[in-house]
Amino acid sequence: MKVKMNHMLKTSLAIWLIATLTLLAACGGAVNNNKESAAPTVAPSASPSAETGAAYPLTVTDGMDTKLTFEQAPEKIVTLVPSETEVVFAVGAGKQVVGVDQYSNYPEEANDIEKIGDMTTNIEAVVKLNPDLVLASSSMNGDAIAKLRELNIPVFASDPKTYGETIAHIESVGQILNRVKDAETVAGHMRDVMNQVMNAVKDAPAKKVYLEFSPGYTAGSGTFLDELLTMAGGTNVAGSKEGWYEVSAEEIVKQNPEIIIYPDMKVKPNPIVAAMDSRAGWNVIDAVKNKQVIAVAEDPLVRVGPRLADGLLDLAKAVHPDLVK
After folding, report:
1. Over the stretch 79-113, which tens digit does the pLDDT of each residue have?
2. What is the pLDDT of residue 267?
3. Cβ contact 270:220 at 8 Å
4. Calpha distance 115→106 (Å, rounded)
5. Cα separation of 223 and 310, whole Å?
6. CA 223, CA 43: separation in Å to the nearest integer?
7. pTM of the model
């Protein structure tokens, strides 16, 4: 029964991921006709710094061009997606989180926080918690964002599409929560990892890599996974098409990647591996023949939060194990 339940949970996570990335591809990060800017901005009454912290009143513009003003740092926070939960904890404000989505499983403390829905947010549950701030994904939580704003609940929505935008978002959240120093530490670590990886692989020939992030789906050009693969010293063989799309087994065989990477979904059999094993002609690919089909940790790879640095490092170790330790 436990194995069955774990399988059901992971299947739900895979569906959640596909839905997320499908929305990104179809909508360019915007939903429900809300306009979204490239990155959120923060305009405090005085310039924040690690030494002085944020200055209030603090006016911010989120990824949907919505302005919010905070008279003081929010004390009660609800997060609607796992990446936002991880950001809040990473900047040292985890104790202020009063509600999270069902899939927020990191850090461990998040499992004990009240759940306010899965792919569909329980608006009544959020209202009952009376949050000072809701952190949301503009591409996943469009309906919830609209409903919560109608109820005058402050929602800061974002949709980082790159490693750099993820860092900028973490810094913005740090300023809103008056955790500037902690956010700068997280951002600094992410930049250090990026520089470490890119310096390690800069003189190495790029290796042909195929990445399957969910059963039957891969990441094309213009996605953050394509960006991470490039940083890690790889060439994405699925990069001829844009966005997140369904795999063409014949095309991947034709591209003949040297390395195949997939997330370890912690269930056996892994549905991605099962899908790959069932494809005709897959055994002629160099990566398969040379046993270069490599699993990496799932959550750091697909969540645009502080652990994206871990995902980048995992990819680099898989692509260039001799250069990145």
Report:
1. 999 999 999 999 999 999 999 999 999 999 999 99
2. 84
3. no
4. 14
5. 17
6. 29
7. 0.85
